[in-house]
Each structure stands twice: as C-alpha cells, then as structure tokens.
Design brief:
This protein has 301 residues and is mostly helical. Helices cover 64% and strands 1% of the residues.
C-alpha cells in the first residue's frame, strides 16, 4: 500500500456520482504528473549511486566516523524521492477516477473530505473542484519547513489525519498521546524492529524541539533559530530513515552505534540545556511582573 487513506464515504461519493465524467481532472492530473516525473527521475538517478545494502556491509564502517554518519544524508534523499514519487503517483490514480473530488466550496480537508455541507443537486453545476481529500504528500513542507512536527504533517498526510483523529485524540493521557500514536503507526507499517526503533524515537525528538523552542526562540532571533532548527530536524529525519530502510534490529543498532547514537545524544543535550535555561527565564519574567505590580501600587498610593 502506498496511500492515500480515504474514508468509505469518499469512496461512496465517487461510486454514486452519476456525473463524475464532468468533473475537470486534466489540469490537476497534469500538475501531479509533473511532480511524479521530477521525483521519479531524482530517485532513479540517486538510487543508482546510493543503496541501503551498502550500510549492511563492513566496508561502510571502515571509512571512518563521518563517512558512515553522513551516509544517511544521501540515503534519506533516495528514500524520500521514492516515497514522494509513489505517493504522488497514487494521487494521480485517484484523480483519474475522480476519487476524492469535491467542490472547493465544500472546503474539503486532507483525509476528512468536505467540512461544509453542500447540495448534491448543485454539485455538478460547480465548476471548481479539488482533490485535497486525497492529498497525501507535501514535498515542500517535508523538505523546507522549520520544525520536525510541521514536517511530519506534510508526510503521508491522509494517514496522519487518521492517526490524529482515531488514535492521538482518543488516548486519555496527554503525556502518552504521542508515544501511543507512534507505536500504532509503527505497527501499521509492519513488525520489523527498525520501524519501532525509529517511531519510538520521534517523541524524544519532539520533546527536545518543543523545549528548545520555548527556551530560546524569540521574535528577535526567529529567522536564525528556524534555520538552525531546520538543520537539526533534517538530521533527525535522516537518522530515523535508516531504521525504516535497514529494518532489522542488528543492522539499525549497528548503524546508530557507528554514529554514536548522534541524534539520541543531541536530544539529551538539548533537553538538558532547555530545562536548565527555562527556570532562569521564568525567574526573569516573574521579577519583571513583580516590579510592574510594585510600580502600580506606588502610583495608587
């Protein structure tokens, strides 16, 4: 399965739409095909030079620490080009069959479908449609958005919607929502240990990112901070992708161990720094608040 996820209601609406042939699909299809060709060519060229099998050999680890660690950078590029091309191509199939086509006036959302009621009788008279319901990948958001959390929302978007609505929001404890959701997502992918190792690292990365943002990101430094955050969150995705590709416990742990568990270590450092700096920031805020209160009291007196 490559996605996208869609509800039975979406399928039902497609099957029972007697005038689906009148829905304009050539333009959205051509736009998606352009992306498919771009991603497909990138995958074919890059996969010729970089393969995951190399990470399973002793040769990779004989070239030194940085060579082995930085191998995940081109490997993740190959991986995401493969996934992007597959997901966009699957969207093309949906578009050709008019699956997920709804009037723009109904304000359809990814995975959910229409969010505003509309008249079935007036459906075919509306000329503007979109296929946002089956929109499954936002390559730009995945590659260039600043935070790990936002980048995840652009990856396998319809499944993300399902996980958010049917798993995340149903977990009673807010503290465990992300971990439980990642565990279900790992099981959805399969039973290979690499999936679980990668997915269960996600909550740690998100915690580190959230704490660092609260501790250090300000309106004055947001551009510089966002660039740095983007740099580190990309390394996080690359690191986790090795679990997806190597799959087995031994191969994944061997590679992570060769990198000295670099992302896990960085997360531990970031969490520690953010926790140490957070109380000082609160103290300054409280001091400023007390000062303003005392000033107001003096004025009243």
């Amino acid at each position: 399965m490559t996605g996208p996820y869609y509800k039975y209601k979406t399928y039902y609406d497609m099957v029972h739409n007697e005038k689906s042939s009148e829905i304009p699909s050539v333009k959205p299809l051509s736009e998606k095909l352009k992306l498919t060709i771009l991603y497909g060519l990138c995958f074919l060229v890059s996969s010729h030079y970089v393969t995951i099998d190399y990470a399973k050999t002793d040769e990779l680890y004989q070239h030194g620490y940085w060579y082995a660690t930085l191998f995940m950078v081109p490997m993740f590029f190959v991986f995401r080009m493969r996934m992007y091309s597959a997901w966009v191509l699957s969207e093309c199939v949906c578009i050709m069959s008019t699956l997920g086509a709804y009037p723009i006036a109904s304000k359809p959302k990814c995975g959910q479908g229409p969010t505003v009621k509309y008249s079935k009788e007036e459906e075919t008279s509306v000329e503007e449609y979109n296929f946002e319901t089956v929109h499954n990948i936002d390559g730009y958001k995945c590659d260039f958005t600043a935070t790990f959390r936002d980048a995840m929302r652009g990856w396998n978007m319809t499944v993300q919607w399902w996980l958010a609505n049917f798993v995340y929001r149903r977990v009673p404890s807010k503290a465990w929502r992300t971990s439980v959701t990642m565990l279900v997502s790992a099981y959805w992918h399969g039973i290979h240990p690499g999936y679980y190792l990668s997915f269960m690292t996600v909550p740690v990365i998100l915690l580190a990112e959230d704490l660092m943002i609260k501790a250090f990101r300000t309106p004055e430094n947001e551009k510089t901070y966002d660039w740095l955050n983007w740099f580190f969150r990309m390394r996080g995705f690359e690191y986790l992708s090795m679990g997806f590709l190597l799959l087995t416990w031994n191969h994944t742990i061997r590679y992570w161990m060769a990198s000295y568990f670099i992302v896990h270590v960085l997360c531990a450092i970031f969490i520690s720094i953010a926790i140490l700096c957070k109380p000082k920031r609160k103290k300054r805020e409280n001091t400023a608040s007390d000062a303003s209160v005392s000033t107001e009291v003096k004025k009243e007196n």
